[in-house]
């Protein structure tokens, strides 16, 4: 398995194809295996690279210690992109990985040529129409509840709680066994998300992103993800299109990979 040492950490990754690089950033409770439905189709035209973020599988992290904050993952990915040595990349991020991709475009725009944000996870601050929050928001509360269940030994209960936060009632039961296995392998990363220090999306941050950006969401996703997509569409100077993936919820690249892959390839190849 290839790996790349960045910021003192060995990030393992998978790759397929040849040519200009396309880099995929997975979301919560996932790792590079999440992108299996994208590797071959995108690899027919590009060099597709999918790393596992710090502390995700194949590392067997117990949830203790430092290094799981959003800023750490952003800087790890910035170093990873630079280490590829192929110039600006086409970057695709899903959910928590979409948030990381957003922050990369905000802080390291020279590393990115085109950007795909697939339901980037987080919350909106008041400048983008979000409600003022006193104390932990709904997202942080869901993370804490799920992590507490995992810590108590109820791994399935914790994964179910998290899945329902992103996908609604019954979301865990609807997942394929492959996706459930990936979730179980990464269950203890939920402990890290309690104190990951993910800042809400702000108008100033969105207005700073000028790289051409495609926004993607599942047609059957949760309203909270649509609200983020709507706010970014209105605000990002680099907004270049929006696609709704039919017959798909939050995990659109897995729920309907053919439609997701087609939409992404059309955007990556457009002039």
TrEMBL record:
Coiled-coil stretches: none
Alphabetical list of InterPro entries matching this protein: AB_hydrolase_1 (IPR000073), AB_hydrolase_fold (IPR029058), Carboxylesterase_BioH (IPR050228)
Superkingdom assignment: Bacteria
Organism name: Paeniroseomonas aquatica
Name assigned to this protein: Alpha/beta hydrolase
GO molecular function terms listed in the Swiss-Prot or TrEMBL record: hydrolase activity
Annotated ranges, domain AB hydrolase-1: 21-256
Stored PANTHER family: HYDROLASE ALPHA/BETA FOLD FAMILY, PIMELOYL-[ACYL-CARRIER PROTEIN] METHYL ESTER ESTERASE
UniProt keyword Hydrolase present: yes
Protein keywords: Hydrolase
